UniProtKB/TrEMBL annotation:
GO terms for molecular function: oxidoreductase activity, acting on the aldehyde or oxo group of donors, NAD or NADP as acceptor. The keyword Oxidoreductase applies. Residues 3-445 form the Aldehyde dehydrogenase domain. It comes from Paractinoplanes abujensis. Belongs to the aldehyde dehydrogenase family. PANTHER family: ALDEHYDE DEHYDROGENASE-RELATED (PTHR11699). This is Acyl-CoA reductase-like NAD-dependent aldehyde dehydrogenase. Pfam families: Aldedh (PF00171). The lineage of its organism: Bacteria, Bacillati, Actinomycetota, Actinomycetes, Micromonosporales. The keyword Oxidoreductase applies. PROSITE patterns: ALDEHYDE_DEHYDR_CYS (PS00070), ALDEHYDE_DEHYDR_GLU (PS00687). Keywords: Oxidoreductase. The active site is at 227.
């Protein structure tokens, strides 16, 4: 059994099972047995089951959100959005089974058609920072395409995933089609990589573990989707709406206590407006409300664990702190929103993913300098740029090496559109039509005439 801790209080409030190798194998084998019948379900019936699953999630939004507030320290506003996102993503992909068409390709001597075939058992490995949405982005398209799923939540945050597994059964998904397998990454997650019945791994987590999964998957030529770390840039040009850019910058990095792969943790400000921008940013950072995440006005909760707090602290100790917000000091793993001045692109807090409420700031000279600095990283997941010049917005958007970029906003994820990383931030795309196809293989059939 694993203790489940409330990060806002540091207290254990429940325990969950931690599956061993034999139980993991049994789940994978159940999923493999369930696959032939699930892929044979008529497209309209599979669509109806996914819509029913979405409806059951919708009936349990408050319950799921409360679990996440308690287990992950998410603010109640965020947790409600996250539960709603699972429902929406299920609804979106429920449209897929009836539209997953192949092509008819003109060839001499016969008829040529393609099919999008499901892969079999898909293993989904989820981190602790966004347990619900990241689970849904994997299981909804995987199930829609006709695969069966085994899902491993992070040991720290298993509760909502376990509940979603129960809700799937309540909605009428057949036994074995969607199973949640809680346990350690080195046991359950690693078994997904080595078990021959698992045909694809959909992994979200650190770049380090992602690389080891990709290497392990090579042995059986497993398909992989990897969503890894980030060090995204927020680029503010002198011609931008500075008030709006400054008001929204704290949320873009401190939301979810900075434990967000898309966090805009590197702030690049054009030097001619650097001082002015920091003077606008400071009150916004100080006003960022860090408190009990169950409070409706909470903007940020605690960090996930004591050891993570130690890691985040190590980036701030000895660095040049420009200004900080405030946070509770007792019970749980609180950390104030913190803005650090970078003096060189070699500063550790500028280069590495902190995964906490820490923003590094650096001035830049011109457009070319901004692009050079933004791209000076092995990560490439998300980012923002602020300008009123449409030409510049397009030039910089094309030049920045990142999978998702937002102009004059900080959004990264919309379930209709592809999401994923360039360079070492990942491989493949989630959400939108791209994710659906990544859970299929194309089969080509030729009929001689
Ligand atoms: P990891 O330590 O990589 O853990 C992620 C998941 O992998 C957990 O479920 C973990 O299990 C499991 N795992 C650990 N070792 C494994 C192994 N050898 N084989 C198979 N599975 C294994 O990451 P984390 O610290 O939880 O999450 C933070 C990282 O995720 C950050 O770098 C963040 O940027 C990234 N992230 C990326 C995205 C996207 S969409 N790109 C989204 C969210 C987070 P345990 O429960 O045992 O740890």
């Amino acid at each position: 059994m694993t203790d489940v801790i409330n990060p806002a209080t540091g207290e254990v409030f429940t325990t969950v099972p931690s599956l061993d190798l034999a139980a993991t194998d049994a789940a994978i084998e159940r999923a493999a047995r369930a696959f032939p019948a699930w892929r044979a379900v008529a497209p309209g019936d599979r669509a109806r089951l996914l819509r029913r699953f979405a409806a059951v999630v919708d009936q349990h939004l408050d319950e799921l959100a409360e679990l996440e507030v308690r287990n992950a320290g998410h603010t109640v506003g965020n947790a409600r959005w996250e539960a709603g996102n699972v429902r929406d993503v299920l609804d979106y992909y429920a449209g897929a089974p009836e539209r997953l068409s192949g092509r008819q390709i003109p060839v001499p001597g016969g008829l040529d058609v393609t099919f999008h075939e499901p892969l079999g058992v898909v293993g989904i490995i989820v981190p602790w920072n966004f347990p619900m949405p990241i689970a849904g982005w994997g299981f909804a398209p995987a199930l829609a395409a006709g695969n069966t799923v085994v899902l491993k939540p992070a040991e720290l945050t298993p509760l909502t995933a376990i509940r979603l597994g129960e809700l799937a059964l309540e909605a009428g998904l057949p036994e074995g089609v969607f199973q949640v397998v809680p346990g350690q990454g080195s046991v359950v997650g690693q078994r997904f990589v080595t078990h021959p019945a698992v045909r694809k791994i959909c992994f979200t987590g650190s770049t380090e573990v992602g690389k080891s999964i990709m290497a392990g998957a090579a042995d059986q030529v497993k398909r992989v989707t990897l969503e890894l770390g980030g060090k995204s840039a927020n680029i503010v040009f002198a011609d931008a709406d500075l008030e709006q850019a400054a008001a929204s910058a704290p949320g873009s990095v401190f939301d979810n206590a900075g434990q967000d792969c898309c966090a805009r943790s590197r702030l690049l400000v054009q030097e001619s407006v650097y001082d002015k921008f920091l003077s606008l940013l400071e009150p916004a950072v100080r006003a960022f409300r860090v408190t009990d995440p169950a409070q409706p006005d909470a903007e940020m909760g605690p960090l996930i664990s004591a050891s993570h707090k130690k890691t985040v602290t190590s980036y701030v100790d000895g660095s040049d702190v420009a200004f900080r917000g405030s946070a509770p000091e007792t019970g749980g793993w609180w950390f104030p929103p913190t803005v650090l001045l970078a003096h060189s692109t070699e500063d550790r807090h500028w280069r590495e993913e902190v995964f906490g409420p820490v923003l590094s700031v650096l001035p830049f000279k011109d457009e070319e300098d901004a692009v050079r600095l933004a791209n000076d990283t092995e990560y490439g997941l998300s980012g923002s740029l602020w300008t009123r010049d449409v030409g510049r917005a397009l030039r910089v958007s094309r030049a920045v090496e990142t999978g998702a970029l937002s102009v004059n906003s900080h959004s990264s994820v919309r379930y209709w559109t592809p999401f994923g990383g360039m360079k070492q931030s990942g491989l493949g795309r989630e959400l939108g039509p791209d994710a659906l196809l990544s859970f299929t293989d194309v089969k080509n059939v030729f009929l001689a005439m």
